[in-house]
Design brief:
The protein is an all-alpha fold. Helix 1 packs antiparallel against helix 2. The longest helix is centred in the middle third of the chain and has 21 residues. It starts with 7 loop residues before the first helix and ends in an 8-residue tail after the last helix.
């Protein structure tokens, strides 16, 4: 699990981009926005910078 949190910058940007989309999708009950928000969160969570070792 430590490997996933090694690059906190991209994780935070993914959360910042994904959470509003997810919340908006839940509020409007739009499944496409919910899935888009979840996808953005996952991409941000597992993303790495080009100079990372893992």
């Amino acid at each position: 699990m430590k490997r996933f949190f090694n690059n906190i910058k991209t994780t935070m940007f993914g959360a910042v981009a994904g959470l509003p989309l997810l919340i908006d999708g839940i509020a409007s009950k739009d499944i496409a926005k919910i899935l888009g928000g979840i996808g953005t969160l996952l991409v941000g969570f597992f993303a790495k910078d080009h100079d990372s070792q893992f």
